[in-house]
């Protein structure tokens, strides 16, 4: 998200924001895992995470504002795509049709999201004080290889279940609106996954090596 910014309000804000976000997503992950471990079924998961997850994910709108205002050097387009796709799931699928949230797809989606965000926000918080451990650096740019396909597959499955299920009860046009968004996942997922692969090459692969050689 950002390179260490030295001292000052901006650095303090980024540490606080990223630490709070990491804790929030760790709470979601812990609740999902605890419920699945204790109850052994995803049916009970939404009872303990639904509202908290909606609030936490909606707060991610700040990511777009950070990119727009230059608080962090993040690309506005890809940041907006990722945040928008999750808000679509939270508010256009999971909120109006809570009966869908009892499925395993909902739990797998939250696990993929929360694992990703715990690592990402922890990485950015520690980066502000130049204390990122090597293993976390590697996970930050490698875990998506598995977590992104799991997450997006779960998102699409949730949307499709709404389309063929209760969506038409909300409005006759609603299934078609959902279908249009799902179709946008085809180019969108390619763009986002390609961006993450490029970031991985930059920080773990050829790009990183080349940058190091230039500074030597």
UniProtKB/TrEMBL annotation:
Enzyme Commission numbers on file: 4.2.1.134
Transmembrane segments: 12-38, 138-161, 173-194
Intracellular or extracellular location(s): Endoplasmic reticulum membrane; Membrane
Membrane topology: Multi-pass membrane protein
Catalytic activity: a very-long-chain (3R)-3-hydroxyacyl-CoA = a very-long-chain (2E)-enoyl-CoA + H2O
Gene Ontology annotations for the cellular component aspect, listed alphabetically: endoplasmic reticulum membrane
Alphabetical UniProt keywords: Endoplasmic reticulum, Fatty acid biosynthesis, Fatty acid metabolism, Lipid biosynthesis, Lipid metabolism, Lyase, Membrane, Transmembrane, Transmembrane helix
InterPro entries, per database record: Tyr_Pase-like_PTPLA
GO molecular function: very-long-chain (3R)-3-hydroxyacyl-CoA dehydratase activity
Family indicated by similarity: Belongs to the very long-chain fatty acids dehydratase HACD family.
Alphabetical list of Pfam families matching this protein: PTPLA
Function text: Catalyzes the third of the four reactions of the long-chain fatty acids elongation cycle. This endoplasmic reticulum-bound enzymatic process, allows the addition of two carbons to the chain of long- and very long-chain fatty acids/VLCFAs per cycle. This enzyme catalyzes the dehydration of the 3-hydroxyacyl-CoA intermediate into trans-2,3-enoyl-CoA, within each cycle of fatty acid elongation. Thereby, it participates to the production of VLCFAs of different chain lengths that are involved in multiple biological processes as precursors of membrane lipids and lipid mediators.
Entry's Gene Ontology BP terms: fatty acid elongation; sphingolipid biosynthetic process; very long-chain fatty acid biosynthetic process
UniProt pathway annotation: Lipid metabolism; fatty acid biosynthesis
Top-level enzyme category: lyase
Name the UniProt record assigns to this protein: Very-long-chain (3R)-3-hydroxyacyl-CoA dehydratase
């Amino acid at each position: 998200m950002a390179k260490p910014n030295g001292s000052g309000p901006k650095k303090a804000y980024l540490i606080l924001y990223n630490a709070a976000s990491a804790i929030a997503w760790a709470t979601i992950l812990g609740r999902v895992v605890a419920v699945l471990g204790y109850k052994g079924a995803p049916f009970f998961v939404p009872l303990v995470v639904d509202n908290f997850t909606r609030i936490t994910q909606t707060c991610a709108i700040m990511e777009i504002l950070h990119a727009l205002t230059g608080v962090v050097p993040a690309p506005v387009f890809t940041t907006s795509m990722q945040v928008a796709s999750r808000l679509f799931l939270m508010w256009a699928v999971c909120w109006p049709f809570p009966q869908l949230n009892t499925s395993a797809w909902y739990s797998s989606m939250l696990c993929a999201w929360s694992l990703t965000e715990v690592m990402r926000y922890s990485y950015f918080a520690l980066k502000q004080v130049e204390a990122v451990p090597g293993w976390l650096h590697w996970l930050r740019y490698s875990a998506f290889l598995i977590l992104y396909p799991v997450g997006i597959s779960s998102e699409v499955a949730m949307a499709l279940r709404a389309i063929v299920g209760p969506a038409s009860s909300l409005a006759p046009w609603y299934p078609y609106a959902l279908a249009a968004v799902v179709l946008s996942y085809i180019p969108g997922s390619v763009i986002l996954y390609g961006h993450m692969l490029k970031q991985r090459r930059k920080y773990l692969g050829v790009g990183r090596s080349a940058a190091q050689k230039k500074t030597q």
